[in-house]
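Q: Here's a chain of 149 amino acids. Please give me its 3D structure as tokens.
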Amino acid sequence: MLDIDEMGHDEIHKVLQNVGFGHLGYIHEGKPYVMPMHYYLEDSDIYLFTTKGMKTHDIDVNPEVCLQVEKVDDPLHWSSVIVTGQAEQLTEQPDIDHARQFIQKQNPTLSPAINRTWIDAWGREEVVVIYRIHPREMSGRTTDGVSSQ
């Protein structure tokens, strides 16, 4: 039997800092929906850089979100973090400029958000949206392949 341990704040922060990719949960048409998502951690805030579409519509309607992040080395060595909080769309230009500069330092191409996504013969306009998640709760579990049995 594998021992699974609760992670402390510093361990959780380290996973969030090092991974940068997770699964964003939100409500779509009254049902839970999960989407893969790049994120950017600055201090205790999590930034999401995306383009306007279904996800942004749904988050604007209900800003309560959940971000799940994992680091899996193999089935016996992994860490998983859950962050819940409220996503706030940045609307003030100084906040947008700060976040975009911070994000672009880590991801100069702003990919995959800035890519052509075809939804019909005409494609769609790329309108950038940046959210800041203020974590309300963070939890994490990890295992190092050791069993106390």
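Q: Can you summarize the key feature?
A: The chain has one domain: 5-115+128-141.
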